[in-house]
UniProtKB/TrEMBL annotation:
Full protein: residues contained: 179 to 441 of 441
Main location: membrane
Keyword Secreted: no
Membrane-crossing segments per the record: 1-20
Catalytic activity, as annotated: ATP + protein L-histidine = ADP + protein N-phospho-L-histidine
Keywords: Kinase, Membrane, Phosphoprotein, Transferase, Transmembrane, Transmembrane helix, Two-component regulatory system
BP GO terms, sorted: cellular response to phosphate starvation
Name this protein carries in UniProt: histidine kinase
Location(s), subcellular: Membrane
Lineage of the organism: Bacteria, Bacillati, Bacillota, Bacilli, Lactobacillales
GO terms assigned for molecular function: phosphoprotein phosphatase activity; phosphorelay sensor kinase activity
GO cellular component, one term: plasma membrane
Assigned EC number: 2.7.13.3
Source organism of this protein record: Companilactobacillus versmoldensis DSM 14857 = KCTC 3814
Top-tier EC class: transferase
Length: 263
């Protein structure tokens, strides 16, 4: 009996400790796993442009008698890759700062017409120069507490994507509306659209729907992850749905401070 009770006790404590360890360690293991996945993805993304630059430099080194004009193509490719590295490291720093909560945030009370149209102006010219239509309808009179620079960055990400993934002749719109006392602004496009399976994943770090399609557009798969973080800082929400008949609508919900109709 002593042996049986000892074994039973030992078995029960073993099972209990197994489940306890799983429960308490799970968040640590998950976050460690996520972090190592992130480092792995980041290293992979950094390696590609570095390998291209290294290849080009080594090639140029084997031909010391060539002039800059002869090597213009290699130099231009290397510069493109340096720019890619630059934007990638900036995005990585941005995400790391937000993870460590060291991002400087400067919230101010303001109205949509004072912070939304600002970043749009340069985009209007770019979009129209690519034979695409651009429409803006920001009209809600409401007070919101936002960091203007961060919202600017968020809008640039959404407009940049809308432009990248919309072919010539398409339309990109930015508009705002109130629904059930909540404030929303949206960027819609008539571009390639996003499948239901990809709609949640695209906000993850380094996620790209079609890597071969994204390569010429110069994306690194971090834009929407940063967008999500900016919305999080504002205690808002971001979601994507289909535009009809084609394209996507990215909508941002921002908490309303207090309703204030202008006279
Ligand atoms: P990227 O820098 O690759 O554009 P993002 O994080 O901004 O990275 O976007 C992730 C992926 O989501 C993109 O690679 C693209 O496949 C998809 N995506 C984002 N915006 C749009 C859009 N407006 N239309 C179609 N696909 C989009």
């Amino acid at each position: 009996i002593v042996i049986i009770s000892f074994v039973t006790f030992w078995l029960i404590s073993l099972i209990l400790s197994y489940f306890l360890t799983r429960l308490t360690m799970r968040p640590i293991i998950t976050s460690w796993k996520k972090q190592s996945e992130f480092v792995n993805d980041a290293a992979h993304e950094l390696r590609t442009p570095l390998a291209i630059i290294q290849g080009k430099l080594e090639y140029m080194f084997t031909k010391p008698n060539k002039t800059i004009i002869d090597e213009a193509e290699s130099i231009s490719v290397s510069l493109d890759e340096v720019n890619r590295l630059n934007s990638l490291t900036n995005s990585l720093l941005e995400l790391a700062r937000a993870d460590q909560a060291t991002t400087k945030v400067s919230m101010r009370l303001t109205e949509p017409e004072h912070f939304l149209p600002d970043p749009i102006k340069p985009f209007k010219d770019i979009i129209e120069s690519q034979n695409k239509h651009f429409e803006i309808d920001i009209h809600e009179k409401i007070t919101l507490r936002v960091d203007k620079d961060k919202i600017k960055q968020l809008l640039i990400i959404l407009l940049d994507n809308a432009t990248k993934y919309t072919p010539e002749g398409g339309t990109i719109k930015i508009y705002d509306y109130l629904d059930n006392g909540k404030y929303y602004f949206a960027v819609s496009d008539t571009g390639v659209g996003i499948s239901d399976a990809d709609k949640q994943k695209i906000f993850g770090r380094f996620y790209r729907v079609d890597k071969s399609r994204t390569k010429p557009t110069g994306g690194n798969g971090l834009g929407l992850a940063i967008a999500k973080q900016i919305v999080g800082i504002h205690h808002g929400k971001i979601f994507v749905k289909d535009n009809h008949p084609t394209g996507s609508i990215f909508t941002v919900e921002l908490p309303v401070r207090h309703k204030q109709l202008k006279s």
